[in-house]
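Posted in: Structural Biology > Protein-Ligand Complexes

Title: Requesting predicted complex, adenosine-5'-diphosphate in pocket

I'd be grateful if someone could produce the 3D structure tokens for the following input. Sequence and ligand are given below.
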Amino acid sequence: MIEQTLSIIKPDGVKKNLTGNIIQLFENNGFEIKAIKKLILTKEEAEDFYYVHKERPFFRSLVDFMTEGPIVPIVLSRENAILKNREIMGATNPKDAAEGTIRKMYAESIERNIVHGSDSLESAKFEVSFFFNYFDII
Ligand code: ADP
Ligand code: MG
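-- Reply #1 --
Done. Output follows.
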């Protein structure tokens, strides 16, 4: 099934000038870029985006990290986009991430892990519409 998923190049990835590399990796893996932008989240927006984690001990720190600089949200499309993107991102903790994955190659820590990716159809719908309107997605 052709799906859409939301990727975000997080503030650490943008700061390290990895935006181009990561987009190239998506295209090399058969993803189409359907929409893309650059912005800085407010604390309130970051809290809303990560509401599923609001009871977790790392929530405050995650919100601070995600608002420390610009991010690049991207709508990606391909067959099995959600799972495929999770594959090329690698595990949340870069120590556990497989060789060749984005997080293995570039992430510093379990928190500063370069990219976000939707984890289900339901979250992909919520996350895509968090950043993009229907008419932004080509
Ligand atoms: P993923 O991004 O792989 O889907 P989660 O949804 O579990 O991971 O967590 C969301 C984000 O919260 C992670 O990408 C990471 O930035 C941060 N995070 C997750 N677990 C921890 C942790 N134990 N300590 C600090 N930050 C964490
Ligand atoms: Mg997640």
